[in-house]
UniProtKB/TrEMBL annotation:
<dbReference type="Pfam" id="PF00703">
    <property type="entry name" value="Glyco_hydro_2"/>
</dbReference>
<feature type="domain" description="Beta-mannosidase-like galactose-binding">
    <location>
        <begin position="11"/>
        <end position="174"/>
    </location>
</feature>
<dbReference type="GO" id="GO:0004567">
    <property type="term" value="F:beta-mannosidase activity"/>
</dbReference>
<keyword id="KW-0326">Glycosidase</keyword>
<dbReference type="Pfam" id="PF22666">
    <property type="entry name" value="Glyco_hydro_2_N2"/>
</dbReference>
<dbReference type="InterPro" id="IPR008979">
    <property type="entry name" value="Galactose-bd-like_sf"/>
</dbReference>
<dbReference type="InterPro" id="IPR013783">
    <property type="entry name" value="Ig-like_fold"/>
</dbReference>
<protein>
    <recommendedName>
        <fullName>beta-mannosidase</fullName>
        <ecNumber>3.2.1.25</ecNumber>
    </recommendedName>
</protein>
<feature type="region of interest" description="Disordered">
    <location>
        <begin position="226"/>
        <end position="246"/>
    </location>
</feature>
<feature type="domain" description="Glycoside hydrolase family 2 immunoglobulin-like beta-sandwich">
    <location>
        <begin position="188"/>
        <end position="305"/>
    </location>
</feature>
<dbReference type="InterPro" id="IPR050887">
    <property type="entry name" value="Beta-mannosidase_GH2"/>
</dbReference>
<dbReference type="InterPro" id="IPR006102">
    <property type="entry name" value="Ig-like_GH2"/>
</dbReference>
<feature type="compositionally biased region" description="Low complexity">
    <location>
        <begin position="227"/>
        <end position="246"/>
    </location>
</feature>
<dbReference type="InterPro" id="IPR054593">
    <property type="entry name" value="Beta-mannosidase-like_N2"/>
</dbReference>
<keyword id="KW-0378">Hydrolase</keyword>
<dbReference type="InterPro" id="IPR036156">
    <property type="entry name" value="Beta-gal/glucu_dom_sf"/>
</dbReference>
<comment type="similarity">
    <text>Belongs to the glycosyl hydrolase 2 family.</text>
</comment>
């Protein structure tokens, strides 16, 4: 059996004449921070102070301890080097690398000193040096940002983005190890997992072996074992193994390639969240010699399911619908960026936390965006367990990418390696060629400056689909996002394939989402600043203002604050201070996303998915994220939880008149009585009735609002309330589903001054804050982190009618003694942290 030795200890980083302790896995920035050489670049404007780090060259050193081994071969394995590195062992050059997205393995047999330690050095050249040299050799290509990220196979957003800092990293960002082996080892294993029409599962394990000289002529045996299933429990952690028997198959072979196949009768199907369970089977391939001795072993968890992409033409154009196990799915998605600009800091626990948050918000699809990385195995493991579908971009984004050497061979090598690595995961359902590059060629004035030079089309329409077809034919491939299916249509044609909607944020208003029904909305978003406590931590000592120096530094979008302010002006009177600005930008972000998602979900199956930009942040920044860079939930997160619920009640315009729409994505039929009320701003019910709505499983039903219930837009004082699945007379806003329709914008509506009562009560580890409305309270928000930086609330924006009450659970805050006493400091603190829409 192979013998593996991790090389994690004893590393140093050379900084000038000094040597600093280093962590592996890690990166230069984190090592320099740990040594106190540089400040935390996330704070204030320290990002600018550390820009020199990305321009410098670095060297990591360690000593490999002496160790005897009976094995024939020793390999030095780097799972991830960022990015341009030269490796030497015992003073001898071992190899050079230039790709962050792949691993590297070097034969170092005979280079280790068995009697004394052997020096190991890894020298990193600045990624800028490499990228600029390639640019000079191949010629300038256009991109969306003034950095040379497309000339090097490295995480593009290291060079900055419209939500990310420019922190160009270097280092061993994944594990390093020595591997001793003899006779033969498994070079790669590709399990093609399929299900036939009768429900039988099939695992066809195609594999390659490498042999030593002594093992070249030996007959070897590969045994495939498929055991399980184990079904993840409600928390997403694996449960007890199921009753299915273990299936085994084996093959004897010569040469370097072979296939072994196992048939699994009555395979338990893996389903996306909300459609069924997520049973996972242990899959193990063992390589043995002719004497039965184990040489190598590969093991993963797999799931049995089918996946297809339906892009059939229809009367509307051509669709884009994911079909899993024959079930057509409206994808409730989020875009994922690297959760830290220093990816080596992202732990399996952090992946689980963030992805569990996505699942709890009703998300069933996560798109791994193309300006980042192929995420660590732990990311996909958690998605397998939680039933989150994964759309995986290949790492190309917002730029024209040269197709010549040295890049082309690196692109093919990384694609093959990562397709092989990730294909066991049942959660992975789509390979996507790039982010916005096909669109960029057509619309971003690339064609003329390129003058016929390569720009990536050959990757997206040639190389990558060939790699996927040869390596992982069980999954669909799509050339890019947006992409309409062919050059016969504009790449961002809403009637075909996937589309991105950025004109709304950049130039118009979020109400313009209502003007179109894309077949699949793969990107759309609206900005808001991070949580208040996140700003306080990131900008210590700063007097916060929308245009204060730190706020502007942590706003990376072009004219970002201008777009925020113009978005507010369309709906609200100018905020009088920072706190109101901060609150209203959060409201606008949540309203914008809800407007798009509700509208598009109401047009299922013409629209088959929404993928919100974006779930997460990589540092504290004003951005489109629902979860900020410190992991705090913005109001948008809670709004996602509402609009991505299996059952959604919404009011939509049909032929200019309001209609009540019941969107039912659950597996059961939904029949409900909807109470409709035409209300006045002062709290009076002007008219009311009930409508019966019935939506079959996975369908949408709607009913027109009777004319006498339609609010008078001219008065600026009337609105519509629709309540379902609740007794609206109970005065408790905790139950049921509610939809609101205001016929005019907020600045035109006659809101009363907000009045409400607050009560506090301790319940276990939480403080329950009960708010009773004395007037209409539109978009009431408790910013719990204003009570204390660790405080969290379990609710986001709430709209209460006069007399209604809602209870918000706050954790991580101690209100002191007698917190419910009138006038107590705790009550006043809560009142100061509560916000609502105010009169114009």
């Amino acid at each position: 059996m192979q013998d593996e030795i991790p090389l994690t200890d004893g590393w140093t980083l050379r900084h000038g004449a000094a040597e600093l302790p280093a962590r592996v896995p890690g990166c230069v920035h984190t090592d320099l921070m740990a040594a106190g050489v540089i400040p935390d670049p996330f704070l204030s404007r320290a990002e600018d102070e550390v820009a020199w780090v990305g321009r410098a060259d670095w060297r990591y050193d360690t000593v490999v301890p002496p160790r005897e081994t009976p094995h024939e071969r020793t390999d030095l394995v780097f799972d991830g080097l960022d990015t341009v590195a030269e490796i030497s062992l015992g003073g001898a050059a071992v190899g050079r690398t230039r790709n962050m997205h792949r691993g590297h393995r070097f034969d170092v047999t005979g280079l280790l000193d068995a009697a004394s330690g052997t020096a190991l050095s890894v020298r990193f050249d600045s990624a800028y040096t490499e990228a600029e040299a390639v640019r000079d050799r191949l010629g300038e290509r256009p991109n969306a940002y003034p950095e040379p990220f497309q000339y090097i196979r490295k995480m593009a957003c290291s060079f900055g983005w419209d939500w990310g800092p420019t922190l160009v990293t270097a280092g061993m960002w994944k594990p390093v190890r020595l591997v001793h082996w003899s006779t033969a080892r498994l070079a790669d294993v590709r399990p093609l997992v399929t299900v036939d029409g009768a429900g039988a599962g099939r695992v066809e394990a195609r594999f390659e072996v490498l042999r030593t000289e002594s093992g070249a002529d030996r007959t070897l045996t590969a045994e495939l074992r498929v055991g399980g299933p184990e079904a993840p429990g409600a928390s997403g952690t694996p449960g007890a193994p199921g009753a299915s028997a273990t299936v085994e198959a084996s093959v004897r072979f010569d040469g370097t390639h072979a296939t072994v196949t196992a048939e699994v009768p009555d395979a338990a199907l893996w389903w996306p969240r909300g459609y069924g369970e997520q049973p996972l089977y242990d899959c193990e391939l063992t390589l043995s010699d002719e004497n039965g001795g184990t040489l190598d072993r590969w093991s993963r968890r797999i799931g049995f399911r089918t996946v297809a992409l339906d892009t059939s033409p229809d009367e509307l154009g051509s669709g884009f619908t994911l079909v899993v196990n024959g079930e057509r799915i409206f994808a409730r998605g989020v875009n994922w960026i690297p959760d830290d600009v220093f990816p080596s800091r992202i732990t399996p626990e952090r992946y689980r936390t963030r992805l569990t948050q996505a699942r709890e918000a009703g998300v069933d699809l996560v798109r791994v965006w193309g300006g980042g990385i192929y995420e660590a195995d732990a990311f996909y493991d958690v998605c397998d367990e939680l039933g989150l579908l994964v759309w995986q971009d290949f790492p190309f984004a917002c730029a024209a990418y040269p197709e010549e050497q040295p890049l082309r061979s690196e692109v093919e090598a990384e694609a093959r390696e990562n397709v092989v690595r990730l294909m066991p995961h049942p959660s992975l359902v789509l390979w996507n060629g790039n982010n916005e590059n096909l669109w960029g060629f057509r619309d971003w004035d690339w064609e003329e400056p390129l003058a016929g030079d390569s720009w990536g089309e050959g990757y997206y329409l040639g190389l990558l689909p060939r790699v996927v077809a040869e390596t992982d034919p069980t999954r669909p491939y799509w050339p890019g996002s947006p992409w309409s299916g062919s050059w016969d249509h504009h790449p961002n044609d809403r009637r075909h394939g996937t589309s991105h909607s950025w004109e709304v944020w950049n130039r118009t208003d979020y109400t313009d989402y209502l003007l179109e029904v894309p077949r699949f909305a793969a990107e759309f978003g609206w900005q808001a600043p991070p949580a208040y406590a996140t700003l306080r931590r990131a900008l210590p000592g700063e007097t916060l203002a929308p245009d204060s120096p730190g706020m502007l530094h942590h706003q990376k979008a072009a004219d970002g604050n201008g777009k925020l302010d113009r978005g507010l002006e369309r709906h609200f009177a100018p905020p009088g201070n920072f706190d109101r600005w901060h609150y209203l930008t959060q409201v606008n972000q949540a309203r914008a996303i809800a407007t798009g998602v509700e509208h598009w979900r109401a047009h299922w199956p013409a629209c088959a998915g929404t993928v919100v930009w974006q779930l997460n942040d990589c540092w504290p920044v004003t951005s489109w994220a629902a979860i900020d860079g410190d992991g705090r939930l913005k109001p948008l997160y809670f709004e996602l939880r509402r609009v991505y619920a299996d059952r959604l009640l919404t009011v939509q315009l049909r032929d200019g008149a309001p209609a009540v729409v019941a969107v039912n994505q659950s597996a059961e039929a939904w029949r409900t009585s909807v109470r409709l009320r035409r209300m006045s701003a002062d709290g009076r019910t002007l008219a009311g009735t009930r409508l019966d709505l019935g939506a079959a499983a996975r369908t949408v039903a709607e009913a027109a609002v009777p004319a006498e219930l339609v609010p008078d837009a001219g008065s600026g004082k009337e609105y519509l309330v629709a309540d379902a699945d609740a007794d609206a007379d109970a005065g408790d806003a905790e139950r049921g589903l509610r939809a609101l329709h205001f016929p005019v914008r907020d600045r035109e509506f006659a809101y009363p001054a907000p009045r409400f009562d607050v009560e506090l009560a301790r319940r276990g580890d939480a403080v329950e804050v009960t708010v009773t409305a004395r007037t209409l309270l539109r978009d009431l928000l408790l910013q719990a982190d204003r009570l204390g930086p660790e405080a969290t609330a379990d609710r986001g924006l709430l709209t209460l009618l006069p007399g209604e009450r809602a209870t918000i659970a706050v954790r991580g805050w101690d209100p002191g003694d007698a917190p419910d006493t009138d006038g107590a400091p705790a009550v006043e603190a809560v009142r100061a942290a509560l916000f609502a829409v105010e009169p114009r």
